[in-house]
Amino acid sequence: MRAALLEQYGEPEAFTIKDIQTPEINPGQVLIANKASSVNPVDVLVRKGKTKLLTGLMGEHLIGSDFSGTVISSKSDRFKIGDEVFGMNNAVTGYGAYAEQIVANEDATALKPANLSFAQAAVLPLVALTAWQSLVDEGKIGSGDRVLIMGCTGGVGIPAVQIAHTFHATITGTCSGKHIPFAKNLGIHHVVDYHQMDMLGDEKFDLIFDASGHFTISDMKTNLTDEAMFVSTRGGTDNLTGVAEALLDLTFKKRMKIVQVSANHADLERIRAMAETGALMPHIAATFPLEQLADAHRMQEKGGFTGKIAITM
């Protein structure tokens, strides 16, 4: 079966399409005929070698996290052969998803939303899990809350907006000026160009979710109510100064959280249910075949698009 392997860390051209052996599965796992995957920022970091202390310093690597396909072998009591599934393997230490057949743990897998294609389902797991765990588990979102979502038209921001809607939140979003019409179509009540953040003034929010990862709580302290949480995907760790500020804020300001996304069956089932009711719908910016994975990664690095990039097998 074909897979996109990294023989060395580096630029997108480092991917090589090769035929490899079908992997073996252990108890509690399934073997999936993978139909689609996606590109996430963390996949780019892994490809570049930013996580090499965890993934290893040499040898061939199969990376990628999101998957969607059909079970072809099962050692799980939860899934049977023929089930259409989706899910997320650990992006750094899990079983890579840029392949025609992949291994997945049963707890990182759920039945695919019946109303979605394999490609649509494959762009949801990592970003929707991140959004759910940020808003609900870490942010403690409540019904009718005033919520600020920074980076509202990105891969994580779009499902975050949709999840916040299910809580009847009043949503303010930040994005680039050219994406403001898209943001308004998502139903965001107030959209701000991220180049004009001062337009927020002293407006208060019950929850701030920085899906862009560029900020820390100190940047937004005037916009938080006394009990509000600030949740981030990265905590403003774009540079050494940002890292230092984030560490200080995490240590001394208990209302700041950096989400550590993890796949679990219960949350994936929630995502499936929301997708099947239409409350959570994916937005695919572009679709590439596995053979053009390098082009997909180049597009991810360039940025400037809304939604996610899908990979089809």
Automatic annotation (TrEMBL):
Provenance organism: Parapedobacter deserti
Domain Enoyl reductase (ER) residues, every copy? 10-311
Per its UniProt entry, which superkingdom is the organism in?
A: Bacteria
The protein's matches in InterPro entries, at most eight in alphabetical order, are given as: ADH-like_N (IPR013154), ER (IPR020843), GroES-like_sf (IPR011032), NAD(P)-bd_dom_sf (IPR036291), YIM1/Zinc_Alcohol_DH_Fams (IPR050700)
Q: What is this protein called?
A: NAD(P)-dependent alcohol dehydrogenase
